[in-house]
């Protein structure tokens, strides 16, 4: 190979290499300019044109066409009706359902409230499960709209019967409680009726409970306090506490002669000889001890309970011998049968003349047949003024 040929080939190789280097530099320069540059957005799609129309806000709406006149017809005259006969005024309530003239005019009606089985098992002096009286009013008030000329005059309420009383001796009476539910389930427990005389005052306490296995569960506590007078026990305050319920109070307001309740808005006028559930059996004892001949006919006593009051009407069923853990005891058997519209249970009390006429057995028979019987197991006489 000649020297000229070799030099020519060498120059071509150098030119080719320089061209390659130049092309690479141009490519690097172009890519360097493209780095970081945002890609051009795609051309937007063609959209449908939007049409708008301007309307003046103050342009009034076209008036509605006036309705076509309607023909007018006068209504036909109403037929003349004969005048209504005068409505007879309500009659007076039975005087036997009232306690006294004072209670007759101011008694407030209240709804009946039936007790449950557990409450009936714990009611010692006067069961709390019994129904309440709707009213002890002797007069039925006529509606305000009834003309006075149409009202029949209500007869005057009878004077309350007053009893000669002699207080029974203060004592602690322990009682066995036996209950049979309407479905035949039997329960047993104990109760205590205790009363103390302190000068001219008194205090009664009643506790009742049931036995569960080896424990005794207290279900009811009643207290009654007040003074002692010619009419026997004169309550001023009764409290009642049942298991799982709030304490309630019944107030015998002697100054204004009213009977009120913390558990309701009911209000009654006090009648002479009015009692509460705790003092009631002791008041019956005081009446029998005062004069046994008084235990004839009906013995009516206004009794204040936890929410209202009603007249308890007792009759004497006779003289009986009952069996107790203290032996056989001669008693006078008093019964308060159910009274429709007032209470639905039957209450029975046995008074023992040989034990100061104290109650030695109390039984409550509910409307569904459930029966609770409390029978004295021990009587401990106490001195006046003893704690």
State the helicity in percent bands: 10-25%
Shape: rod-shaped
Low-confidence stretches: 35-46, 71-158
Cα-atom Rg, whole angstroms? 48 Å
| Secondary structure: number of strands | 15
Largest sheet data:
15 strands, mixed
Quote the average pLDDT: 75
Can you walk me through this structure?
The protein contains four helices and 15 strands. With 387 residues, it is an alpha+beta fold. The chain has a domain at 115-132 and 161-381. Strands 8-7-6-5-4-3-2-1-15-14-13-12-11-10-9 form a 15-stranded mixed beta sheet. A hairpin with a 4-residue loop joins β10 (299-304) and β11 (309-324). 33% of the residues are buried. The model is unreliable at 35-46 and 71-158 (pLDDT under 50).
What's the short version?
With 387 residues, the chain is an alpha+beta fold. The protein has helices at 3-34, 101-106, 117-122, 280-290; strands at 171-180, 186-198, 201-212, 215-229, 232-242, 248-253, 258-261, 267-269, 275-276, 299-304, 309-324, 327-336, 346-352, 358-365, 371-381.
Question: Secondary-structure blueprint of this entry?
Answer:
Blueprint: H1 3-34, H2 101-106, H3 117-122, E1 171-180, E2 186-198, E3 201-212, E4 215-229, E5 232-242, E6 248-253, E7 258-261, E8 267-269, E9 275-276, H4 280-290, E10 299-304, E11 309-324, E12 327-336, E13 346-352, E14 358-365, E15 371-381
Characteristics:
single chain; 387 residues; alpha+beta
């Amino acid at each position: 190979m000649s020297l000229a040929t070799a030099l020519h080939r060498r120059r071509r190789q150098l030119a080719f290499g320089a061209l390659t280097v130049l092309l690479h530099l141009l490519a690097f320069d172009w890519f360097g300019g493209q780095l970081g540059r945002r890609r051009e957005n795609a051309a937007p799609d063609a959209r449908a044109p939007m049409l708008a129309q301007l309307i003046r806000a103050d342009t009034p709406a076209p008036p509605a066409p006036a309705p076509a006149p309607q023909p007018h017809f006068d209504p036909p005259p109403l037929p003349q009706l004969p005048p209504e006969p005068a409505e007879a005024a309500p009659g007076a309530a039975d005087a036997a359902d009232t306690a006294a003239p004072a209670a007759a005019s101011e008694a407030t009606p209240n709804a009946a409230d039936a007790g449950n089985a557990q409450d009936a098992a714990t009611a010692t002096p006067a069961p709390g499960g019994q129904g309440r009286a709707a009213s002890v009013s002797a007069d039925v008030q006529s509606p305000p709209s009834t003309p006075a000329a149409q009202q029949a005059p209500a007869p005057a309420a009878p004077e309350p019967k007053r009893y000669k009383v002699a207080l029974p001796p203060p004592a602690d009476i322990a009682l066995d409680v036996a209950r049979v539910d309407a479905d035949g389930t039997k329960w047993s427990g104990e109760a205590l009726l205790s009363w103390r005389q302190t000068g001219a005052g008194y205090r009664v306490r009643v506790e009742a409970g049931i036995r569960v296995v080896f424990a005794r569960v207290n279900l009811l506590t009643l207290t009654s306090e007040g003074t002692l007078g010619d009419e026997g026990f004169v309550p001023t305050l009764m409290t009642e506490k049942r298991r799982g319920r709030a304490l309630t109070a019944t107030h015998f307001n002697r100054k204004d002669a009213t009977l009120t309740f913390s558990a309701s808005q009911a209000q009654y006028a006090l009648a002479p000889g009015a009692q509460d559930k705790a003092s009631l059996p002791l008041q019956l004892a005081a009446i029998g001890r005062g004069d046994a001949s008084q235990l004839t006919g009906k013995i009516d006593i206004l009794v204040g309970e936890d929410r209202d009051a009603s007249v308890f009407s007792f009759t004497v069923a006779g003289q009986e011998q009952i069996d107790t853990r203290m032996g056989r005891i001669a008693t006078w058997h008093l019964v308060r049968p159910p009274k429709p519209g007032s209470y639905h249970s039957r209450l029975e009390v046995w008074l023992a003349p040989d034990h100061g006429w104290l109650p030695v057995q109390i039984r409550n028979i509910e409307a569904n047949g459930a029966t609770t019987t409390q029978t004295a197991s021990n009587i401990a006489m106490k001195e006046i003024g003893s704690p």
